[in-house]
Amino acid sequence: MQERSPSLLDELEARSIAILREAYFRVSPLMMLWSMGKDSTALLWLARKAFFGEVPFPVVLLDTEMELPEVYRFRDELAAAWKLDLKNELCPPEASIDPTLPPAARAAGRKSAGLRALIERGKYRGVIVGIRRDEQATRAKERVFSPRAPDGTWDVKRQPAELWDVYHTDVPDGHHLRIHPLLHWTEVDVWRYTQRENIPIVPLYLARDGKRYRSLGEKNITVPIDSHAATIADIIAELETTTTSERAGRVMDHEAEDAFERLRTGGYM
Predict the structure, then answer these.
(1) What does pTM read for this prediction?
(2) CATH of the domain at 21
């Protein structure tokens, strides 16, 4: 895996900050999703840099009440330390989700339903999300400013071109934009940046007794992987040689072949 130079990390940071500022000045009302994972926490750090130490829009956890205890503790501590306008959006029960989805995908679909309800109630026109193109094949098709229908559905074949970083920020009433400031980053970029900036992380990312979480999700649909990476430097070294998918610990990715794509098309992050 090719190492990123400090100047390339600076370029990634500058581009993400420019996207965040573009979103803030052109899309309103605006909010940011925060899962407490490494990506969305790095994105929060970038937002604080973009706006001189403050995050000028609400930060939302789509809460299924199934996060790991360490994740909730991290949320409370960092929200207080960074003075976030934190909103906790309880998601609908699993019984209300499409019964044709496999079990783990159905559990994950609760977040899509929670997000739809929040957008409709708050009339949000922009939702900032910390996804990356390299983490999943369907996400590789995304745009930075990605239009969504009122029900959250995503038409991958009708996305606007984004030549020369010119973004389309107008959407019809009732529609909204998913905004992806980390789309051009890789997993190892996020870890190198987290190490350089000393960004806080949930301790579950670090190995204990030969296990760690590579990707954080709800406790009922996420499992740890085998690993001895006990520091961020160890994680970076591990990523330079691994052939295992980042989402190897996400149960829904191992169900029906099209489960994740169905979730994404229907509004999943």
Answers:
(1) 0.89
(2) 3.40.50.620
